[in-house]
Amino acid sequence: MKNTVSGCSIEDAMRLLGGRWRTLLIYYLIDGPRRFSDLRRDNPAISHRMLALDLRELEAAGVVSRTVHATVPPQVEYDLTSEGRKLVPLINALGDWWEQLAKSRQATGPEGCSLRERLYERVTRPVSSAPQLVKHMQPARPARRRDDRPPSQPATGAVSGTTARAASAHNPPAAEWSDRLSAK
Q1: Which end of the chain is more exposed for a tag (fewer CB within 10 A), N or C?
Q2: Which pTM value belongs to this model?
Q3: Which of 122, 123, 127, 176 is nearest to 147 (CA)?
Q4: What's the pLDDT tens digit per position in 152-179?
Q5: pLDDT at 23 over 80
Q6: Cβ contact 21:43 at 8 Å
Q7: What is the percent of the chain with per-residue pLDDT over 70, rounded to a whole number?
Q8: SS3 breakdown of the chain: % helix, strand, coil, rounded to 5?
Q9: Residue 65: which H helix or E strand, with range?
């Protein structure tokens, strides 16, 4: 484990239990030993690699024990140790706290009105209160051609048949263009 910055035991505990999955894995192990595949099935959003890494960290910290059964394929079970069982009341209290917070946030928002009222206000707000778009926008300038031909003259080379004859009537030969450019 990394060194702590403050030397505080809370920082060490949060480093062990922090992250997205570790506390949830402990919660899944409250009811008893679980196989790796069961933990993966209970939490399909976690990748195989992250599940293995987090279980190894919890095992190294002494929170989880790992038992390998000699079968083919090998079965691995994870269970909470006595130190891990001491975390169960804390995890349950954390879940209760969150449920109470979610209920109070649903009942009243930070401004003192209910979440439902704030959402209704946001949806029914008149369009006129929306920021106005800039009315005086400059028109887009036409793209310049590489050979500095006037935009009215079509490009040569990709046309054939009668279109080629019509295009050649409007376009001077390449030598004429080079003379014009060198004269500038």
Answers
A1: C
A2: 0.54
A3: 176
A4: 655 555 555 555 555 555 555 666 656 6
A5: yes
A6: yes
A7: 55
A8: 50, 10, 40
A9: strand 64-69
Amino acid at position 14, single letter? M
How far apart CA 48 and CA 37 sit, in angstroms, is 9
Strand pairing partners for 75?
A: 69
- Residue 125: partners with Cβ closer than 8 Å, 6 or more residues away: none
Write down the residue that tokens 């691995």 correspond to.
76
Q: How many CA atoms lie within 13 A of 121 on its CB side?
A: 7
Residue with tokens 């500038």: 184
CA separation for the pair 134, 78 (Å, rounded) = 62
The torsion defined by the Cα of 38, 40, 45 and 50, in degrees rounded to 10, comes to: 150
Residue type, 164: A
Residue 165 has phi, psi (to 5 degrees) of -65, -40
Q: From residue 119, how far is each of 105, 123, 129 by CA, in Å? A: 13, 6, 16
Cβ proximity of 126 and 102 under 8 Å: no
